[in-house]
Amino acid sequence: MKRQKGGRYSVRNVEKRKKRKREVISYEDVPLEEYNDERTEISKSAVKKIIIVAAIIVVLGLVVFAVANSDNLTPEKIGNWFKYELFGSHDNGYPAKLIGTSVNDGNFLCDGDLTYVSDTSYECLSSSGNEIGYNQHKFAKPVLKTAGDRVLIYNLGGNGYVTGTKKELDKVREMDNYIISGDLNSRGYTALVTQTDGYLSKLFVYNSDREQVYTYSFAELYVNSVAINDAGTGCVVCGVTGDKGSLLCVAYVLDFSEEKPVATYSLDDNMIYDIEYLSSKNVCIVGSSASYVLNIGAAKLTPVEYSRMELTAYDIDPDTDAFALSLSRSGDGRKCSIQYINRDGEIMSVNDTDYAITSMSLYKNRVAALDSTDCLMFDINGEELGKADAGVGAKSVRLSGTDNAYVLGINEIRQISGFDYKE
Questions:
Q1: pLDDT in tens, 154-206
Q2: Domain locations in the chain?
Q3: Distance of CA 170 to the CA centre of its chain
């Protein structure tokens, strides 16, 4: 049957239903078509009043916020927020804010310029605080080594490492196995020791062109320290080996022209912290219970005994062919004895102090020592010359001159320019 015009499904009835629907949902009996066409006009004076009231509310809110945070709204802190948080800039001057959250004492170095590696970044700063070089890294346990203008950063227990100059680092490279120690010299030679299959450790040496020039596999020695000479012709490694059921520390002298070590030395029951060449033939070895000077040419090992004292700090200075030790006489880190030793292993001076020394630095004829918030200055004869304020949270000190030093704080690097010398 055909549907009639005007029936249920006709166009005319659909239009009628739409009109009734609009009338039902209209506001105050006004159809929506007419309601939407209306405009509410606000006078200019009313708009001005609204703006003034809003501005007053904002100003009052800022005043309350400023009063509540007056300690944090100093010009210095506001400037730092704009520099570091908003623009990511770095300071030109000291104190310089650390980039990252933590820096180990061994990763805070002064070799002409100040260099450090934090948990996130590498940075090199000039004496005026200007940034010379900067790189981010993703190493879990970074270790920093410098020699002249050369830089090595390796990931202890990881595969990655990076070399370059203080101004610019190269791209990250990876070893096949985990890195356990490393060193470099001023000519760009790099020595890396890794774990390896079939051996306890393996040494790799590369020249400045990244060409491998030497390897040595250690079947009985787990190496934990290495130092390469400045000529790039040899190195000294220290590690731990087994000896009749106990552990023995051993030093190997390697010549890159020889297949086997040219000499080995027993360092007794000791844990080696650091090795560094004092000259082309003399090597300083710092350990937990004794230190040594190894004369490679004379095949002579000279021990520096601690006499049951505890090592609290040390520094090695190849520029003066000497090193210094801080040994606690009380066993709790206090009453430290400062010993200055030459490249022949001779103790040149001993100064028994009442200080608790946690960091040391050598520069020419000066020895700086950190005791809590004080930075103390001594000469190489052991005489105390003066002191300076190191600031709260001082962790490490590095001399940059006979009267200047850098101090590593919790979140900044401070500079000491002048000490209060005794009359």
A1: 999 999 999 999 999 999 999 999 999 999 999 999 999 999 999 999 999 99
A2: 45-89, 306-423
A3: 18
Give the DSSP H or E segment for 255. Answer: strand 246-255
Kindly report, residue by residue over 76-97, the tens digit of the pLDDT.
445 444 444 444 445 458 999 9
Expressed in angstroms, the distance from the first to the final Cα of the chain is 125
Helix (H), strand (E), coil (C) string for 112-130: CEEEEECCCEEEEECCCCC
Confidence check: pLDDT of 289 > 50: yes
Predicted pLDDT at 31: 54
Distance of alpha carbon 363 from its chain centroid, rounded?
22
- Tokens encoding 36: 């939407």
Q: Is the peptide bond before 303 cis (omega within 30 degrees of 0)?
A: no
Q: Dihedral (C-alpha) 158, 125, 149, 317: value to the nearest 10 degrees?
A: -90
- Average pLDDT taken over every residue of the chain: 87
How many helices (H) and strands (E) are present in the chain, helices listed first? 4, 33
Asked whether the bond before 261 is cis by omega within 30 degrees of 0, the reply is: no
Rounded to whole angstroms, the Cα distance separating 11 from 6 reads 8
Q: Assess contact for 285 and 267: CB atoms under 8 A.
A: yes
pLDDT digits (tens, 9 = 90+) for 212-260: 999 999 999 999 999 999 999 999 999 999 877 788 999 999 999 999 9
Do strands 282-287 and 290-295 pair parallel, antiparallel, or not at all (unpaired)? Answer: antiparallel
Say which CATH topology domain 306-423 has: Neuraminidase (2.120.10)
C-alpha distances (whole Å) from 300 to each of 51, 236, 278 are 87, 14, 15
Q: H or E stretch including 340?
A: strand 336-342
**What does the alpha-carbon distance between residue 147 and residue 188 come to, in Å, rounded to a whole number?**
9
**Which DSSP category does 296 fall into?**
T
| Strand 384-389 with 374-379, pairing | antiparallel
User: What pairs with residue 191 in β-bridges?
Assistant: 183, 205
